[in-house]
Amino acid sequence: MSVPRLQFEGISKVFPAVRALSDVSFSVGAGEIHGLLGENGAGKSTLLRILSGVYRPTAGSVLIDGRPVALNNPVAARAAGVAMIHQELQQVPHLSVAQNMFLGHPLTRGGIFVARREQERRAAEALAALDPTIDPAVPLGSLKVAQRQIVEIARALLDRARVVAMDEPTSSLTPSEFERLAEVIAGLARDGVAVVYVSHKLDEVFGICQRATIMRDGVVVGSVDLAQMSEKAVVSMMVGRELAQEQHRSHISSEVRLSVRGLASATKVRNVSFDLHRGEVLGIAGLVGSGRTELLRLLAGADRASSGRVEIDGKAIKLANPRDAIAAGIGLVPEERKREGIVPLRSISSNMALASMGVFAPRGVIDHTRLKRVAAEKMKRVNLRPFLLDRPIRLFSGGNQQKAIIGRWLAAGTRILLFDEPTRGIDIGAKAEIYHLIEELAAEGHSVVVVSSELPEVIRLADRVLVMRDGTVAAELDRADLSEQAIAAHAIPQSETQGRQGARPSGQQGITDRTSG
Amino acid sequence: MTDVTEHTAARPRAEFLHRFSLRDAGTLIGLVVILAVFGALVPGFFAERNLINILQQSSINACLALGMTLVIISGGIDLSVGPTAALSAVISASMLVAGVPFPLAIAAGFAIGLVCGLLNGVLVAYVGLQPFIVTLGTLSTYRALALIYTGGNPVLGLPAGFRAIFNGSLFGLPLAVIIVAVVALIAWIILKKTPFGEYLLAVGGNEEAAYIAGVPIARTKIAAYMISGLLAALAAQILIGRLGAAEPILGNLWELDAIAAAAIGGASLMGGKGSVVGTILGAVILGTMRNGLTLMNVQSFYQLLATGLIILAAMLIDRVTRGRG
């Protein structure tokens, strides 16, 4: 057998207080798409940072085509043929596509002037094979995320990368965009590139990777041939134990808590009406851009509605800002936790207390004893780990940050919880905990709305599902009628199926297609 | 394959539990080192008289820097504190000269400070302009108003009774020092013990998240700028009490010293982080440097150099001890 394109040999990385990696070894052949799996904190990101020259290993070496390479900094890593495609794309939106592709080493005329035309020509060449619709002269910021990712890959092609590492490349892509990306990755592999593919989405990894290395707590648990493994076996390797398959349990009551009529916003949401019951988990499905997030933001008071009526327990409420929503008992657990959820430098306690300061400071001065007690109680309730309430929240995993945000609403006495993509970027183990928590909240009489792109998640949690399309509710599906196919049939814009109005998929009873009625 | 080494990584617990007070301890060590150096080089540096002098010389900057700290924590900056002080000073002074009762004249000065801060805050919070540009604009505007109001001339001849208020002393300490100490205590309580303090830290730390959590963003920011304006006005009263006159050009470059004291004390210009104790220590460090170097007869050019180097050194030590991200 020939020399593998990429080899990790006994890589260890020790930070002042933590051993992040110990003795990590595995190899990836030329033309292989190799999955790298593990929970948050397993060491995947640290390993990728070593590969891309951001960190230096404490011990061990990286070999490319059998030769050890010194990856002392990102420039050296790039020169050694390693291209890194980040989860959060590291690009400059105001510069053109071509400028971004040549960022850091522009083509020049005589070493002084940037050869713009030449850059654009070469960029177009590289893009032609991937997505010829991308114009290299337009500002990068005008492209969609999926296209930007293609640009990053084109840049890797320009650099003649021999190793391409991708960190969660599909976290914000639609299914069709993912298929396009999968083709591009397969193309890279055909050209002999070794691809290291990190993703939380196991079905994707099983779909496009041949082999995968599974990490846990900084060590390699094993490198496996995916054709001979079940997803379940891989998951138990990742978490180190068997995860029980959970059944849906319903706690819905007949009492209507939230009633929404004709809600619309200036931009995305049009004429949305629905009821939410006490103890109900209502799923909202739909494609990215169908108005799901915007609907939640209207209900949370984060954006203003242009028309419509929202009632809680039969009384109309005003939703001019989040304070109104919170006072009415509505709380939003946002999709982008880092941007909209947490205050990173503040402790778990402070983050939890932020929405209920009035409760903790009835006479203007915060009662820290009481705050500590409530924080301990709520964080025990959501099973925060490690249980360090004074530690800055940014040092916790995504799952635990999410638990703290849920705790925030529990402390504020919220009765209606709105979750936007509740398990995005969260480990499989923590995911199960969040599901449990959502069900327990419903059982206690909370009303819950869950927006999710992951259909299995919606089906697992929801008592009832609204499918959104073009900013409005296209269909309402009861628990008995839930299936991925039924949701997808209503989520896809009608122009792509059969004309504008009244496309009702036949053979699915109990589904009301609202756009026709 | 199932045999996985379970290494229980030592949690860096203590390090984070006392993160902020650790930073303050660092600033305190810096102050102690500087005191020790001057103590060794300058005879009589540790005399009670001189130490009180240092506190008195630091008090005005400390007063401004406390307001600046709150604004910086909220993610903003207030470049207009010097001209705010000047406008407050000339208006109070001309009222005093005209025979208006002291409390009324002082209250008018404070009101000017509050209005200046309110304007800054409204432009930042409601109009959505960048704090740097807003307060750069009001820096010129407020200064111009002070100059226009006085025709560029100082207001002289403040009544002795007024001067006595701010020049008095209590328990052997100048009243100015005691006033600023009380202000610092209040600022500390605000930051550590009140919802407003939590809101400041949240707004500066992540405005979007604070908004979703129901924090009143605009009110919080405006309050920070108004406090900054009020403290600039207080500094102005202390100064004109000491000098017996109010010049429209008073407070030139005060904003820079105030920002320096806050930064040395650990405030992050990115927002979301800062300490009242640190800021006070920062102001005293700057005051000590000036006092010590003057006693050593060091030329003012070199004093400026030393101040610059202290700021840079503080930031470098901050960077190195905090490590990456």
Automatic annotation (TrEMBL), chain A:
Sequence segments annotated as region (Disordered): 492-517
Record carries keyword tRNA-binding: no
Species in which this protein is naturally found: Mesorhizobium muleiense
Alphabetized Pfam families for the sequence: ABC_tran (PF00005)
Record's bilayer topology term: Peripheral membrane protein
Primary subcellular site in the record, as a coarse category: membrane
An example Gene Ontology CC term for this record: plasma membrane
Protein name stated in the entry: Ribose transport system ATP-binding protein
Gene Ontology molecular function terms on file: ATP binding; ATP hydrolysis activity
Domain ABC transporter, first and last residues per copy: 6-242, 250-495
Database matches in InterPro entries: AAA+_ATPase (IPR003593), ABC_carbohydrate_import_ATPase (IPR050107), ABC_transporter-like_ATP-bd (IPR003439), ABC_transporter-like_CS (IPR017871), P-loop_NTPase (IPR027417)
Annotated keywords: ATP-binding, Cell membrane, Membrane, Nucleotide-binding, Repeat, Sugar transport, Translocase, Transport
Superkingdom as given in the UniProt entry: Bacteria
Localization (cell): Cell membrane
Biased composition (Polar residues): 494-517
Family under the similarity heading: Belongs to the ABC transporter superfamily.
From TrEMBL, chain B:
TM spans (from-to): 25-47, 59-77, 89-116, 123-145, 165-191, 222-240, 260-288, 300-317
Database matches in Pfam families: BPD_transp_2
UniProt membrane topology term: Multi-pass membrane protein
Name of the protein this chain belongs to: Ribose transport system permease protein
Keywords carried by this UniProt record: Cell membrane, Membrane, Transmembrane, Transmembrane helix
Subcellular localization, as worded in the UniProt entry: Cell membrane
GO molecular function: transmembrane transporter activity
Superkingdom field: Bacteria
GO cellular component, one term: plasma membrane
InterPro entries attached to this UniProt entry: ABC_transp_permease (IPR001851)
